[in-house]
Amino acid sequence: MNAKLRRKLIETAKRARERAYCPYSRFPVGAAVLTDENKLFFGANVENASYGLTICAERVAVANAVTRGAKGIQAIAIVGRAPKPCGACRQVMAEFSSKDTPVLLVDVSADSRKETVLRLKMRQILPHAFDPLEAGLLPPNPQNLVKPRGGSSARKTKRRKKR
Ligand code: THU
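Above: the input entities. Below: the structure tokens describing the complete assembly.
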């Protein structure tokens, strides 16, 4: 990912943060996902009066990308104050990422003027992730949503099933 695209990804996550619905925590988070097809999707945290129903920005962004047809994530940016994706979001991001997918943690100050970018890889933020390929759960994933890591393509799987 070049510097221009990285900037676009970060700015998309920053704008997404403005859409956060967080009257309870007052802790807005924005996330942006760059798909393998170079498309950008975003999400923000959406809280609920029943606190446990809150959805994190990262999961909203990933769900947005996947429901628009994305199969793989090329990079992710998360913007907030000292943003650190929760454990659940790490596993959800891993589902559509490779172990080398860049995860940009963009720490913004209260007035959003200053930012610090911590560039990590998926393997660093979620070492020893539960891996559906290693666990033998794929294929039968009917949609082949997880990026094949040197495995067969969705097409091949379809053809094999027909026989
Ligand atoms: N939150 C996110 O959206 N992403 C994270 O990475 C961590 C936390 C949200 C959930 C909740 O709305 C608020 O931040 C405070 O926990």
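Note for the figure: The radius of gyration is 17 Å.
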